[in-house]
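Handout, section 3.2

Students often ask what a structure token actually looks like in practice. Rather than define it abstractly, here is a full record for ABC-2 type transport system permease protein. The first block is the sequence as you would receive it.
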Amino acid sequence: MTLLAVERMKLFSTRSPWWCMILALALPIGFTALIAAYSDGIALSTTQFGHQFGLMVTLVLAALAITTEYRFGTIRATFQAVPNRTAVLLAKTGVVGVLALIIGEVGAFGSWGISKLLHPESAELAITTAEQWRQVAGVGPVFALSAVLAVGVGMLLRQTAGAVTLLLLWSLLVESLVALIPEIGPDLQQWMPFVMADHFLSGGGSMAIEMPLGPWGALAYFAAVTVGVWVIGLVVTHRRDA
């Protein structure tokens, strides 16, 4: 518990996490509010279109949580105080993951709430089925797992610019361009981690390609990828100097 408290204090001791949290909530909720305000009606799935904005900011927040420690050299003092590097990194990842989960849920239900406020009589905004709950409440777990992935990438690269660039380019560009590879592109794209995460949220209804796994299988696959990257980052951290 002491490690968790220490990591929480370190995370919130600078301004960047606070600004990231504000942006991660304001962007999706604001985007959804604009759509709802200028449309006659809005579907439940449409209320979550803006979650991608929040996800990108959350990736930056999670990467900063580890890379800034390497940038300012505080990670050395941390490992000297607590030689068990695994415990330190688990605590840091846990704090960042829980924060990302909260951001995702608040952003998702906030986007839904603002839409409901602007269209109070819309039957399309009802949350009654398991699929509808997954579309909204599922945003939080995706954010949390994405934060774990970002921490893993940060452990591997150590530099903020490199980690943030890789995460944003991969999620925004690379996974889309993979489909352009002749013959194997579409099949390969099906197994991209963020494509799987989107499939979990959408249930495949808006996907242009047929997915090999169901929504919950897609979430499990995304979790396996994120944990795998994190474990690799942990192994590398143990093998090299801080």
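Discussion prompt for tutorial groups: The chain has eleven helices and no strands. How would you have guessed this from the sequence alone?
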